[in-house]
Write a structure and sequence with these properties.
The complex is a heterodimer of chains A (145) and B (228).
Chain A lengths: L22 H28 L2 H4 L4 E9 L9 E5 L3 E4 L5 E8 L1 E9 L2 E9 L4 E8 L9
Chain B lengths: L1 H33 L4 H11 L10 E3 L8 E10 L2 E13 L6 E12 L3 E8 L5 E8 L6 E8 L2 E3 L3 E4 L10 E8 L2 E6 L2 E7 L7 E6 L4 E4 L2 E4 L3
The chains are: A alpha+beta (145), B alpha+beta (228).
Chain lengths: 145, 228
């Protein structure tokens, strides 16, 4: 500050002037805290939403087909489930099934019958049909299977 | 007069900030609730992580004076001398719990006879159950600890298996704990980790017990606590 711009001693006649108010600084700090909290909350919410079943189909859907057979290779009646989101189909007389509207990505398919079953992985691409071919129904009640 | 207005303006600013913060908090809670974040679970996890273990207490505990809070789906379940007893073939009993992560603590479990028992976790829609079981399973191969996934009442091939030592004594009183945290499930028997499995299909649900074949099993009590 230039000397000519300096306050005169008269201005300090009644003591030091009051300190400048810090309202602006407080508001800035509060704003930073609020912005940080909002960023964290929005991030957590976005991750949770993207992991939800509702969001699974946002990136396109495909179809899974296959034929369920027993150990001897014969077609068997079975229920087939896509897990997360839950979709299901019943095999026809030839053991064949088709599940449409499966969200794209890595999915798990469970083949069940009479209270037990087996899970298989499936990769679904948007607009395509993923043919799993022949997949075996394996009961799990027998130890070691 | 000037100081009066200055103080008044300052107080007004603080109340404005308080209102803004209040609206933001309401908005955050609403947003988290809409997007499915379990606030109680998050709070309990944070509190437990900070060492405030008693802040949330346990989700529930049961000394098995009766089975009023349990839903028997099938099998023969009863209380005897303050213990839960299960027998009679394929038996399932459940207790509803709307939590994601928790620690199931069974201080005394005894397999009297048969091929084993199971502890359900993250179980929903119990008539056609979806969820998981940890199984104390001498009937699996030469005897093993396993974890299974359940789909619409059907048990799938185990996604985690640990074979027990050949000399393992299955028919004695043991403590069983199952820690359910995120996609990772860890089972302890007598305080020692025996099995760990991962799966991401089911995110929340209740607990239960399972018997099968000729099993008779006793459970002294059960508590479900927030998991660290």
């Amino acid at each position: 500050m230039a000397l000519e711009n300096s306050p005169s001693l008269k201005e300090y006649g009644k003591g030091l002037p009051p300190r400048p108010r810090e309202r602006g600084a407080m508001a800035r700090r509060l704003g930073i805290v609020i912005a940080g909290v909002l960023i964290v909350v929005l991030g957590v919410s976005a991750i949770t939403l993207l992991q939800s079943d509702q969001a699974a189909g946002w990136f396109g859907v495909g179809t899974i087909t296959g034929v369920v057979v027993d150990d001897a290779g014969k077609p068997v009646a079975a229920q087939v489930f896509v897990l997360k989101p839950r979709l299901q189909a019943q095999t026809d007389a030839r053991g064949a099934f088709e599940i449409r509207g499966v969200p794209a990505g890595q999915r798990a398919v469970a083949v069940v019958r009479d209270g037990s079953g087996t899970e298989y992985p499936a990769v679904v691409t948007t607009g395509d049909t993923t043919n799993l071919g022949e997949i075996k129904y394996l009961g799990t009640r027998v130890p070691g299977q | 007069m000037r100081n009066f207005f200055s103080r008044r303006a300052s107080a007004q600013a603080v109340s404005e900030y308080a209102l803004i913060v209040m609206f933001i908090v309401i908005g955050i809670v609403a947003l988290l609730a809409i997007t499915g974040v379990d606030l109680q679970s998050v709070y309990c996890r944070v509190a437990t992580g900070l060492g405030l273990v008693n802040v949330c207490g346990n989700y529930f505990s049961d000394e098995f004076a009766n089975l009023n809070n349990w839903q028997i789906v099938n099998g023969n379940w009863r209380t005897e001398n303050g213990e839960l007893v299960g027998s009679g073939g394929e038996g399932r009993i459940f207790r509803e719990l709307n939590q994601r992560d928790y620690l199931i603590n069974i201080p005394a479990a005894n397999l009297d006879r048969g091929n084993g028992y199971g502890v359900f976790f993250r179980a929903t829609d119990v008539r056609n159950v979806d969820g998981y079981t940890f199984q104390y399973d001498p009937g699996y191969g030469s005897g093993a600890f396993i974890m299974r996934k359940w789909v619409n009442g059907n048990e799938l091939s185990p996604f985690a298996v640990a074979t027990a030592p050949a000399s393992y004594n299955w028919n004695t009183n043991r403590s069983v704990q199952v820690a359910v945290k995120g996609n990772t499930f860890t089972a302890y028997v007598d305080g020692k980790q025996v099995l760990q499995g991962t799966d991401s299909t089911y995110s929340q649900g209740g607990i239960g017990f399972r018997t099968w074949d000729a099993t008779t099993a006793h459970f002294g009590s059960v508590a479900v606590d927030p998991v660290k």
